[in-house]
Amino acid sequence: MSLRARAGARAGSVARARRRPGRVASALVAVPRIALVALLPLAALIGCGGNATGPAPGATPDPTPAPTPGPAPILMWQDEFDGPAGATFDHGKWGADTGGGGFGNRELEFYTTDTANVVLDGQGHLVITAREEPQTTTNSCWYGRCRYTSARLKTQGGFTQAYGRFEARIQIPRGQGVWPAFWLLGSNLDAVGWPQSGEIDVMENIGREPGVVHGTVHGPGYSGANGIGRAYTLPAGAFADDFHVYAIEWTPGYIRWLVDEHEYHRVTPANLPLGTRWVFDHPFFLLLNFAVGGDWPGAPDASTSFPQRLVVDYVRVYQEP
Question: What local confidence, expressed as pLDDT, does residue 66 receive?
Answer without folding.
Answer: 73
